[in-house]
């Protein structure tokens, strides 16, 4: 799987995506916003793995959004009349760019399999948007996160606020947003936004991969259902969620998978579970291409 911004390996049903521009502190250049959703979509839709781990290289997880992302959407003309018309479109073009950036991280929320983030050094600005869209987050002792946008006169707009407000108390979120201060790993764990803190990056990655392996050994259909229901519950009432999970299990619950899970546990072996089906392909000559 080719990528400008990530090194990708898939082994033992775990896809490891490693940000690979440490000399640039893994800033999110224009190619990043194409690469991430493309890779996630391919892994998910082709059922290439049961878990995704996103990690990084160098001193920082990511310095956040590269300024070139917004510059690439600006149009100009030497003709005054034409430039005047282009100026009228600035707001609409900016909104279109923001919506495009937002979907890059929404793909992590929307994909069927769990996504784990392993964070060393700083998760700065736009990379907070990234990690809050993941299912779980892990940090090395030196790690921190910062909603850095306020320090450059911006309001974070790619996904931080609608997600982080469900992970942290509102007052803490507002403090981070208004001051741009750094939240260290131990504070992040104490407040529940981070699952675990490790002494260093190497130990962290070993620990995260072990957790990913444990998830990969569970029934993929049950993991898919769990992620879907947890995300649904986040945005709906208890009554609506109870109704939804009843309908979900009525159509998705598989007795053979349950039987296999119980038998495998009794025999102390790995379960022989079915993988998620590959996504439906385009229709060709009236037939579904699988």
Describe the structure.
The chain is of the alpha/beta class and 290 residues long. The protein has 2 domains: 6-216, 2-enoyl-CoA Hydratase, Chain A, domain 1 (Alpha-Beta Complex); 220-282, Lyase 2-enoyl-coa Hydratase, Chain  A, domain 2 (Orthogonal Bundle), CATH 1.10.12. Helices cover 48% and strands 14% of the residues. The protein has helices at residues 30-45, 68-71, 80-88, 90-110, 126-133, 160-164, 170-179, 185-190, 201-216, 220-235, 238-252, 255-266, and strands at 6-11, 14-19, 51-55, 115-119, 122-124, 136-140, 144-146, 183-184, 196-198, 283-284, 287-288. The strands form 3 sheets. The protein has a 6-stranded mixed sheet, with helices on both faces. A 3-stranded mixed sheet has the order 5-7-8. A two-stranded antiparallel sheet has the order 10-11. Strand 10 (283-284) and strand 11 form a beta hairpin. The two termini are 20 Å apart. The model has no long low-confidence stretch (mean pLDDT 92).
Give a brief outline of the structure.
This protein is an alpha/beta fold. It has helices spanning 30-45, 68-71, 80-88, 90-110, 126-133, 160-164, 170-179, 185-190, 201-216, 220-235, 238-252, 255-266; strands at 6-11, 14-19, 51-55, 115-119, 122-124, 136-140, 144-146, 183-184, 196-198, 283-284, 287-288.
């Amino acid at each position: 799987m080719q990528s400008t911004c990530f090194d990708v390996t898939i082994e033992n049903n775990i896809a490891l995506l490693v940000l690979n521009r440490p000399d640039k502190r893994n800033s999110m250049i224009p190619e990043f916003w194409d690469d991430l959703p493309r890779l996630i979509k391919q892994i998910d839709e082709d059922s290439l793995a049961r878990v995704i781990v996103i990690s990084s290289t160098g001193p920082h997880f990511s310095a956040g959004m590269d300024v070139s992302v917004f510059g690439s959407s600006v149009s100009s003309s030497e003709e005054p009349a034409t430039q005047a018309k282009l100026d009228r479109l600035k707001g609409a073009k900016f909104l279109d760019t923001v919506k495009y950036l937002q979907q890059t991280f929404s793909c992590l929320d929307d994909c069927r399999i769990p996504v784990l983030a392993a964070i060393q050094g700083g998760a700065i600005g736009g990379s907070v948007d990234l990690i809050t869209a993941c299912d779980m987050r892990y940090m090395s002792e030196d790690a921190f996160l910062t909603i850095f946008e306020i320090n450059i006169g911006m309001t974070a707009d790619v996904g931080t606020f609608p997600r982080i407000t469900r992970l942290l108390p509102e007052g803490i979120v507002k403090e981070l947003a208004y001051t741009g201060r750094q939240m260290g790993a131990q504070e992040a764990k104490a407040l529940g936004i981070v699952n675990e803190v490790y002494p260093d990056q190497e130990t962290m990655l070993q620990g995260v991969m072990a957790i990913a392996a444990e998830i990969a050994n569970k029934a993929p259909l049950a993991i898919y259902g769990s992620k879907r229901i947890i995300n649904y519950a986040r945005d709906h009432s208890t009554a609506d969620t109870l109704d939804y999970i009843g309908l979900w299990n009525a159509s998705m619950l598989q007795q053979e998978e349950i039987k296999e899970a119980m038998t495998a546990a009794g025999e102390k072996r790995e379960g022989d579970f079915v993988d998620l089906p590959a996504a439906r392909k385009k229709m060709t000559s009236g037939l579904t291409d699988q």
